[in-house]
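For reproducibility, we list the full input for the zinc ion complex.
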Amino acid sequence: MSLGIVNGTIVTAVDRYSADLRIEGGRIAAIGTGVAAGCDPVIDAKGLLIFPGGVDAHTHFSLPFGGTMSSDDFETGPRAAAFGGTTTCIDFAVQYKGQSLRQGLDAWFAKAEGKATGDYAFHLIVADVNEQSLADMKSIMEDGVTSFKLFMAYPGVFLSSDGEIFRALQRAGELGGLIQMHAENGSVIDVLVQQALAAGHTAPVYHALTRPSIAEGEATHRAIAMAEIAQAPIYIVHMTAAEAADAVAAARARGLAVYGETCPQYLFLSHENYLEPGFQGAKYVMSPPLRAREHGERLWRALQTDQLSVVATDHCPFCMKEQKELGKDNFAAIPNGAPGVENRMQLLYHGGVAEGRFDLHRFVQITATNPAKIFGLFPRKGTIAPGSDADLVLFDPAGTHTISARTHHMNVDYNPYEGRTVQGRIMKVVSRGELVVDGDRWLGRAGRGQFIRSAPFTRV
Ligand code: URP
Ligand code: ZN
Ligand code: ZN
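The corresponding predicted structure, in tokenized form, follows.
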């Protein structure tokens, strides 16, 4: 069966043109005038833009964290992502201390197996950098997982020492892997947290007050310096702070293979959200935290000028009821993370394209093409071209959409962007040639999502 899409305007990171699409076997077979002749079914995309399906390079489905588990799994998470135009999620498998890398990765394969509603790839969190882990990175990469996240935060759980980080950078550099860094000075933050608690400060806002932006800037600078010495590329995840953006910008200006990611929450929300009444500030407890507005403006500017390369979500949802509530009397016990996988493309189109910060092509680049390239999924994912997977978003730029927990598909009882109306509306979503979202209807099924192997890192 061939699927045809006619009369649409195809938009990639570099092109914009009117053409028809012919899709066979889940891949784009042909693009051009009349190529959909004989296809059944045929979708009429008149008046619509057709983007590549989004690639969210940072999700946490079924992540055990802070004594609970993130509330979207591989069934609900990718489905919600698809409603928001994201057809590939790169999730973080976790090696906990005392485990092998293989044990960590296998646990995440098991979570996705038979359940995933959309395509997925994996990064692997390395909590235990030791000789065995370093040796095992090779076979993990041979199995299609080529990026490894390390932490400069969360002492006792995930934090690695500078020496461990440096060894992992050297090893990744020699294997063609990519180290991702959670860059916050966790040791300093830990002291500030203990001091705040000792002073009787328990409210959610203290989560932010004990994680100053300079702790992120310092760690980002240090991580980049270690990568430079190791002659390895580095990717800084979930960047929030002007100081961190400055460090990445300076490194890129010197030609280093340094990449920065930010997330919609750091562009659209701010420190003021922590001051919402009662315990509402807990909705925004994530690490690093939301910052003062000027940091958000700096991040937008970094996206405009290619100082930052990717917008991902760090989707890590916890319900207010029974999950965020774990920290009602102690901000440090609030599980860290927030939802967003469904809203990333909507928000970025609105704030980026509709509000005139950048063009459609830059929008596609930072939401799909760049993450696909950096994490070895391109050109299968991240573009619209013959031979690429037919992952497509049919988008009405004249429509609007109001974000709300009442209508979203994420398995979480609040939405950080509640009530915002965004310009543009996702009408249909095709994943590997299958129409999975048609307006409000979900047409996919559990188990349809495939694991997508990542190729080793090549310079982007
Ligand atoms: O608060 C966050 N970011 N939770 C998810 C874990 C992480 O550090 O990415
Ligand atoms: Zn992190
Ligand atoms: Zn994360």
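The chain has a mean pLDDT of 98. Residues 213-230 form the longest helix (18 residues). Both points were considered when choosing residues for closer inspection.
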